[in-house]
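Case study B.
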Amino acid sequence: MLPERLRSIFRKESGPVSPGTPSPVHSTSGARATLPPGSPNRRSGRKDAPQTRQSRGLEQFFFNIRDVVGLSVLDCAGANQENIDFLINLGHKVYSQDLVRNLDEAFGTDLNEQTNPSRIDYFLRQNFDYPPETLDGVLLWDALQFMSPPLLNATVERLWEVMRPKAYLLAFFTATERALEVPSHSFRIADSKTIVISERDIRPAGQVFNNRNLERLFGKFESVKFFLTRESLREVIVRR
Amino acid sequence: MSSTPYKTPELDSRNAATIGKSVKIVGQIFTKEDLYVDGDVEGTIESQENKVTIGPNGRVQASIRAREVIILGQVQGNVETSDKVDIRKDAKLVGDIVTSRISIEDGALFKGSIDIKKAEPKPAPAPSPAVTRPAESYVAPAAPVASAAGGVKR
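Model:
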């Protein structure tokens, strides 16, 4: 459970709601808060200038795999020169894909498709078709928070299968609990503890994410560690 | 930032064999000179000592082995180079890469793995013969399908 002081901080933070957007629909079930009819599934973000900031989660991720070369690291940020150069310079093999974009390709704009078992199976085959225990590290960034519960659980289960024991996973979630919509970002690694974030667009949140839900989500993994940031982001390091 | 449209310098290469945008080739392509592919290719492309460029209209479902590969179009297949892979803006590559160096522009799509192999030191150049013959390209005769327009040009 979070201390009351932290909880009050979360409550004060409002989601990225633009003028004219209905206020968030609060859910107590942990399931996806549904958008009002007629709402677009995603829209352009504010396109602020990229922000450079420290990331304790990233620092921890690279600290855990320090002094080892030749690891297989999956980067789900989409191919960009900075991330590829950084990982290659550490001596690792890089697997790259744009998971948020692939969500759109697999499920389209109809969010109900994310509950369709055959579509989920297709998505997993397209994105995580690796032999068991292949990956030594996974940089998921913020992609998980746009998945509905069935897709999310299936994805995490598949990640558990393709990650090696003791491998680490880094994921970001909004710290704004029960937000109806959250921005998706692109992530570029500046160094082992610094990232450059820029907003891509704003999307419906897949479900409510709090520490308790996340611990349950990664229950099969060995450990889950949270880092709270000032930017309404919850960084999560998970050990297989 | 320059507003000048991107000009493909590869097109200026006088020595590159070109597969035009209305050409489709199914089979194996071996070449001993630079190759510019702006059409469809299914199979394999091999140009160990040279550069292969997939133009903006190029659609390649093939594994590519070359000294250097530049992608402006779409490639589905593995790419292996002894020197460099260059994936330009709006290009799409789905496949695994083995190379010494890689460059990816913003806006390019890539899905696959990247394995960096250290470049082997080049042996000292052998004395070249006095008379050189023009470079050759060879397209294996595996059911090529070419339309009337375009063709393999020199």
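Strands of chain A lie at 43-44, 51-54, 72-75, 93-96, 135-141, 163-174, 181-191, 194-204, 223-228, 233-239. The remaining cases will be described in the next quarterly update.
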